[in-house]
């Protein structure tokens, strides 16, 4: 049995990141990942309704995208300490099963 956590997009959340600039997505993911807040707390907030719940679901989507795609490479030169910190947290989340492992030939 897999421990991969699946993000279920509800119909009302289908366009969560539509209109959210890439820099904002990056900032939201970076802020959360650097906070060391447990993913379980973010998931609890995602279950809420209204603005708080939607904002948490946007944050979760941003975090999962960064976990899937890795820390931004430009940080290696611009802010190596931040890059290392993000890589450590991303690795922890990957090991914890937050994204499925890469499988060649399987499209997202």
Write the layout of secondary structure elements.
Elements: H1 22-35, H2 39-46, H3 50-69, H4 75-78, H5 80-95
Report the β-strand fraction as a percent range.
under 5%
Q: N-to-C SSE series?
A: HHHHH
Structural class: mainly alpha
Low-confidence stretches: 1-9
Radius of gyration: 14 Å
Report the helical percentage.
55-70%
Our count of helices gives 5
Kindly state the mean pLDDT as a whole number? 85
Distance between the termini: 21 Å
Characterize the largest beta sheet: strand count, sense, and whether it forms a barrel.
none
Number of E-type strands: 0
User: What is the overall silhouette?
Assistant: globular
Would you kindly provide a written description of the structure presented here, covering whatever features stand out?
The protein is mainly alpha-helical. Helix content is about 55%, strand content about 0%. It is built from five helices and no strands. The chain has helices spanning about 20-35, 40-45, 50-70, 75-80, 80-95. Helix 1 packs across helix 3 (about 50-70) and helix 2 packs across helix 3.
What structural keywords apply?
disordered N terminus; mainly alpha; 108 residues; globular
Q: Can you give me a brief rundown of this structure?
A:
This protein has 108 residues and is an all-alpha fold.
